[in-house]
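The passage that follows is intended for readers who have already worked through the single-chain material. We present the inputs for a multi-component assembly, then the predicted structure in tokenized form, and finally a short commentary. You are encouraged to pause after the input and sketch how you expect the pieces to fit together before reading on.
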Amino acid sequence: EDQVTQSPEALRLQEGESSSLNCSYTVSGLRGLFWYRQDPGKGPEFLFTLYSAGEEKEKERLKATLTKKESFLHITAPKPEDSATYLCAVQMVYSNYQLIWGAGTKLIIKP
Amino acid sequence: DVKVTQSSRYLVKRTGEKVFLECVQDMDHENMFWYRQDPGLGLRLIYFSYDVKMKEKGDIPEGYSVSREKKERFSLILESASTNQTSMYLCASSPKDQSGPGANVLTFGAGSRLTVL
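Having made your guess, compare it with the prediction:
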């Protein structure tokens, strides 16, 4: 069964304390893996797309990496404004539009 | 700079009522989606539309229908609302082109939180 699991469910960090969020997947064939950020009361906002193992993408304090089994979202020296829920989604090779979504990781950065 | 607009942010309805959730996008996207978001679960696709008057069922279409009469507008209809349809509903759109840096990237609206009593 195709599945996407995100861990941890919630993560509390002090400002400046670097860490990583995990998205593990079991799918029959990966077309792409997506990371989104969701602020309270808003819809998800696109961050990155990764297509193949070894690929990395960066944006400000965030870096996303991909292996054959999982993706990590590394956050370096986070600030309170990085607090949000981070969602991971996987698109399979046999689908033009269907995504399997993880339940998300709620990240809280304390000043 | 609003790109996907959902007409109602908060709705409270009674069991058995008919509910309309409307979504409008201004990016000329061919694809439009309705998702449902519940705590502890990933987003679940209700319906997808890839063109005017075209629709496909997602993972959880039961109890829902959709309408797409114009390219920019995609409506979700709950024919007879039930308490288990209390949820956050998210509309999204994406371009038809599945190549390039924007391929399959979804732009979401702010969501419509529906409570059915």
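Commentary: Chain A has a mean pLDDT of 95. Chain A is about 0% helix and 60% strand. How closely did your sketch match?
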